[in-house]
C-alpha cells in the first residue's frame, strides 16, 4: 500500500524514531526491501538512486519498483534519491511520491533559487522535497571537512527561503563504507541545524556508521536515514556464499542475496526505531 511520505515522517518525529530509506538496484533487491518492511511491520522509502538510473533509466527503475511494491500491504513510498533537476521533474511526472533535489554542488544562492523553484513545482503536485546543503564526500576521499560541513546559519536561511520539507546535512558522513576508521559525526551540528530550521533532517551515508552514532544522530533530530552500501554488501555476501560451493544458477545466488538483504534491512529498521511503526 502506498504511504504518504510526510505523514510517515511526521509520525516518526512524534514517536521519536527515524524512517529507513534504502536503494533498490534490481528486482531481487526491491523485493528484499519490500519484504523487510512486511516482516518488520515498518514503513519504508524505496529509493531510486544514482546507480540504477544510468543503468536502467528512470522510468524502467520506477516501473519495476512500483510493480513489486503495489502487491504489498506494507506502507511504501517511492522516492527519488539525489536527483538532478531534469530527473526531479521527470520523477514528478512519472508518479514518484517524494523527491530529493540535490543542488549541493551549486553555489549557495543558486542552490536556494533552484531548490525554491523545485519546491513550488513539487508542492503543486502534492509531492514533498528533500534538499541537500553542504557536501557529502565518497568513502576514503581526502577532503577538507570544514568546506564540506553544512553551515548552521546557511541552513536556517536555506530552509526559510526554499520551503523544503526535509534537509540532508553534511556532518562527517560519507557515501559508502570507509576502509579507515570513519570521521566521528558532528552531533552538535545536527542539533543546531534541527533547532534553527525546525524541519526533520536526513542523514545520508548511514552505512558504516557505528550504532551508537546512529542513535545519537536520531536523538539530535535525524528522522530519515539513507543506507545503501551495507545492504548491497549483505546481498553480495549471500551470492558469494552460494557460489563458494561451486557453479550454481544465478537465481539461486540472488535468492540467497535477497534473504541476507532482508535480514540486514530488518536489523536497520530496528536500529532506526521504525520497526513495528507501520
Ligand atoms: O511536471 C513538471 C513541471 O510541470 C515542469 O516540468 O520543466 O520538465 O516541463 P518540465
Ligand atoms: P551509504 O551507501 O553510505 O549507505 O549511503 C547511502 C545514501 O546516502 C543514499 O542516498
Ligand atoms: Zn545519499
Ligand atoms: Na556511509
Kindly list the characteristics that best describe this protein.
binds sodium ion; single chain; binds 1,3-dihydroxyacetonephosphate; 278 residues; binds zinc ion; alpha/beta; zinc ion binding; globular; binds glyceraldehyde-3-phosphate; eight-stranded parallel β-barrel; TIM Barrel; Fructose-bisphosphate aldolase class II
Report on the architecture of this protein.
- By secondary structure, the chain is α/β, with parallel strands linked by helices.
- It has a single domain (5-272), classed as Aldolase class I (TIM Barrel).
- It has eleven helices and eight strands.
- The chain has helices spanning 5-15, 27-40, 52-56, 58-70, 85-94, 108-124, 152-162, 187-197, 211-220, 229-243, 250-272, and strands spanning 19-23, 44-48, 76-83, 98-101, 129-133, 166-169, 201-203, 222-227.
- The chain has an eight-stranded parallel barrel with strand order 1-2-3-4-5-6-7-8, surrounded by ten helices.
- The longest helix has 23 residues, at 250-272.
- The mean pLDDT is 97.
- The structure holds glyceraldehyde-3-phosphate, 1,3-dihydroxyacetonephosphate, zinc ion (ZN) and sodium ion.
- 1,3-dihydroxyacetonephosphate (13P) binds at residues 23, 49, 81-82, 175-176, 204-207, 226-229.
User: Which parts are unreliable, with pLDDT below 50 for 5 consecutive residues or more?
Assistant: none
Radius of gyration computed on alpha carbons: 18 Å
Task: Write out the CATH superfamily name.
Answer: Aldolase class I
CATH class: Alpha Beta
SS content category: alpha/beta
GO molecular function: aldehyde-lyase activity; zinc ion binding
Active site: 81 (proton donor)
Pfam families: F_bP_aldolase
GO biological process, one term: carbohydrate metabolic process
Amino acid at each position: 500500500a502506498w504511504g504518504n511520505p510526510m505523514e510517515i515522517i511526521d509520525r516518526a518525529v512524534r514517536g521519536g524514531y527515524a524512517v529507513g530509506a534504502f536503494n533498490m538496484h534490481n528486482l531481487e533487491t526491491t523485493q528484499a526491501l519490500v519484504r523487510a518492511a512486511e516482516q518488520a511491520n515498518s514503513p519504508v522509502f524505496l529509493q531510486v538512486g544514482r546507480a540504477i538510473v544510468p543503468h536502467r533509466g528512470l522510468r524502467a527503475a520506477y516501473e519495476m519498483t512500483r510493480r513489486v511494491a503495489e502487491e504489498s500491504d506494507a506502507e511504501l513510498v517511492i522516492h527519488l534519491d539525489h536527483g538532478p533537476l531534469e530527473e526531479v521533474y521527470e520523477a514528478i511526472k512519472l508518479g514518484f511520491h517524494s523527491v530529493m533535489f540535490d543542488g549541493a554542488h551549486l553555489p549557495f544562492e543558486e542552490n536556494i533559487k533552484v531548490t525554491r523553484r523545485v519546491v513550488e513545482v513539487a508542492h503543486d503536485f502534492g509531492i514533498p522535497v528533500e534538499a541537500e546543503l553542504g557536501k557529502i564526500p565518497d568513502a576514503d576521499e581526502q577532503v577538507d571537512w570544514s568546506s564540506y560541513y553544512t553551515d548552521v546559519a546557511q541552513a536556517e536561511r536555506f530552509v526559510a527561503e526554499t520551503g523544503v520539507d526535509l534537509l540532508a546535512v553534511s556532518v562527517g558522513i560519507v557515501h559508502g563504507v570507509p576502509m579507515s576508521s570513519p570521521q566521528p559525526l558532528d552531533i552538535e551540528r545536527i542539533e543546531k541545524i534541527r533547532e534553527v530550521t525546525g524541519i526533520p533532517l536526513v542523514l545520508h551515508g548511514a552505512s558504516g556508521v557505528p550504532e551508537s552514532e546512529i542513535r545519537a544522530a536520531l536523538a539530535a533530530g535525524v528522522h530519515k536515514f539513507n543506507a545503501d552500501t551495507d545492504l548491497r554488501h549483505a546481498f553480495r555476501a549471500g551470492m558469494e556464499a552460494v557460489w563458494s560451493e561451486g557453479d550454481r544458477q544465478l537465481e539461486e545466488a540472488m535468492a540467497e542475496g535477497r534473504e541476507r538483504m532482508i535480514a540486514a534491512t530488518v536489523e536497520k529498521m530496528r536500529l532506526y526505531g521504525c520497526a513495528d511503526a507501520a
